[in-house]
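Final report, closing paragraph on structural work. Over the funding period we assembled a curated collection of sequence-structure pairs, and we close with a single example.
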Amino acid sequence: MIDMRITSGIAFVLALVLVSCEQSDPPDFGRIGDEVVFSGYTWDVKSGFNGPGPNYFSDHVADVYVDDEGHLHMHITERDGLWYATEVVSQDTMGYGTYTFAVEGDFVGMPENITVGLFTWDNNTFYDHANSEVDIEFSKWGDDTKENTLQYGVQPINFGTYYPERVNNPPNISELAGVTTHMFHWTDSLITWKSYSGETTNESAKFAEWDFDLNNPGRVKEENGQSSLPVVIPAPGNTTNARINYWIQTYLDPGPSDGQRQEFIVHSFNYEPS
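Its predicted structure, as stored:
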């Protein structure tokens, strides 16, 4: 005869095992293979050896993931003797409109040879529109004494000749601690950038802004032995998308100058077409 106490005990243990398995299943961290789902958009996670930098780009889940609050974490990491950067590329195509990024990181004390990029890009518009690139960046660009790390820009800026009128470094560095929100509104005749303290776009929280219009001269982008047409305000193409990257200026040093793993966090992203 089967002892019912033993049978009941086995059933209880099995139930515990099943519950334990359910509880210990690892979260997906927003990742589906080489994609990450963040802020309502699906992004491709870049990998391989490529620009900018150039860098090795990591698609490891420990380097690009979404936490329980829905925030995107991006890292610069050393693995197997190599330093890896990170980049995500929106699968949605985008164009004229408003791009808003809420971010968190140490943008004042950051190593002088790393860069955060929040920008648009198009692989197919180099000749006519200089890759349709509008930028918000944080970097010291190799100068460890630089404090105003926030930079607004519209390409071409420094491909061949340097065009200082196409870039602006707001001086309000004390506002960059904690969470800040940065946006640009892109039209065919005007680009406007604004930055805010906190995760908000209330005018009362604004600490920097800049405009760029058609009164500026057209400039040529030169890269890999090729030259674009003169560009004032680039237009989006059919394959323009939003990108976020975290990369090393490897022409200065193969890894961050402080030798440490780096992290910054994107709280949210939003695109409103116009």
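The chain has two helices and 22 strands. The helical segments are 4-24, 126-129. We thank the funder for supporting this effort.
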